Amino acid sequence: MKFCSECGQGVTARVPDGDTHSRFVCDHCQTIHYQNPRIVAGCLAVHGQQVLLCRRAIEPRRGYWTLPAGFMENGETTEEAALRETWEEARARLQQQELYMLFNLPHINQVYMFFRGDLADLDFSAGEESLEVRLFHEHEIPWDELAFPTIGKTLKQYFIDRQVQTFPIRIRDILYRPGQTRR
Amino acid sequence: MKFCSECGQGVTARVPDGDTHSRFVCDHCQTIHYQNPRIVAGCLAVHGQQVLLCRRAIEPRRGYWTLPAGFMENGETTEEAALRETWEEARARLQQQELYMLFNLPHINQVYMFFRGDLADLDFSAGEESLEVRLFHEHEIPWDELAFPTIGKTLKQYFIDRQVQTFPIRIRDILYRPGQTRR
Predict the structure, then answer these.
(1) Which of A48, A55, B46, B128 makes a 20 to 30 Å CA pair with A4?
(2) Which CDD domains does this chain map to (chains A, B) (predicted)?
(3) Does A9 sit within 8 Å of B9, measured CB to CB?
């Protein structure tokens, strides 16, 4: 951020009076510009023994496989966001979806929420942001070609929980440690 | 938003190519400015049969009682945000906290997350944003003087769940219906 979105003058980064964090502050109109984490919402769509994955048509990680997911928009609930993304990326509809995985990713200021549910029908197809959408059995999952760490962790947890048919909401922190490759 | 935060030129609201939502777009430097929901994180701090409430020293709802909570910051997890807010507003520390209530509030673009945990000690006090902090038994709760709908709903659910000592993560949508008074 370089300019104030309210008055167009330059902003400076500093800790405002009474605050504990550095903010972009406009010294012209006094607006304090807060920046906060964003929610990524998506779905783990299940059909019998198979799960639905999308191959990304866009960067980052174009060509890699993902669960349908994307940034939550203003004016919707987390569940609505997850279902909308699943429709946009996989033209798929779910039924009886429930929150399943919540990931904190503080190094990229994101909170992921994946809902688990059954595919309502097999009438799915690649949306504009997908090259391909298909169902995978566990032994077919392209583990080395998954787009993001959250995807593999969700799938692995699901295949474990599926054995006992119990799917509690699970919360995981994915922390960036210096020296690791960031994704 | 009136000006581009990257180049300082005026922005216009329109649906960018390939998008489905209206955004503030800069026709000078082509930046698309996305706006997304924010997470409010807080704690339901328990001590025996009592719960901790703070009386707000700031607007909105100055003078009304709340659970300690506030906007999640970049660089932290939801749990860290909840514990930080509890420290800032009530100088209280928790132990064994777990996610308890998640509220979607799409009409104000917020997602609330309350963690439930035991007070680590009784060494709490009003932080800068609180007039007063104290413990309440169920029959003492100032139901008509609670700051926000999320607070009353969390407390009511807790007193129900406490009877059976089972605290599943609960998800609620609070939807604004035209004709209601907004808070």
Answers:
(1) B128
(2) NUDIX_Hydrolase
(3) no
CB spacing of B39 vs A36 below 8 angstroms: yes
Q: Which residue of B has its CA nearest to A105?
A: B77
How far is residue B36 from each of residues A35, A110, A162, measured CA to CA in Å? 10, 11, 33
Min distance B122 CA to chain A CA atoms (Å): 25
Q: Closest Cα partner for A113 from A46, A38, A54?
A: A38
Across the interface, of A24, A78, A171, the residue whose CB is closest to B99 is A171
Confidence of residue A97 (pLDDT cuts 50, 70, 90): very high
Whether the ipTM is more than 0.90: the answer is: yes
- SS3 state of residue B168: coil
Q: How many CA atoms lie within 13 A of A38 on its CB side?
A: 14
User: Cβ–Cβ of B3/A7 closer than 8 Å?
Assistant: yes
Domains of chain B: 1-35 (2.20.70.10), 38-173 (3.90.79.10)
Mean pLDDT value of segment A158-171: 98
Bridge partner list, B55: B65, B132
Q: Do A21 and B73 touch (CB under 8 A)?
A: yes
The 10 Å CB-count burial string (b at 16+, else e) for B36-62 is: ebbbbbbbbbbeeeebbbbbbeeeebe
What is the SS3 assignment for B74? coil
pLDDT for position B101: 98
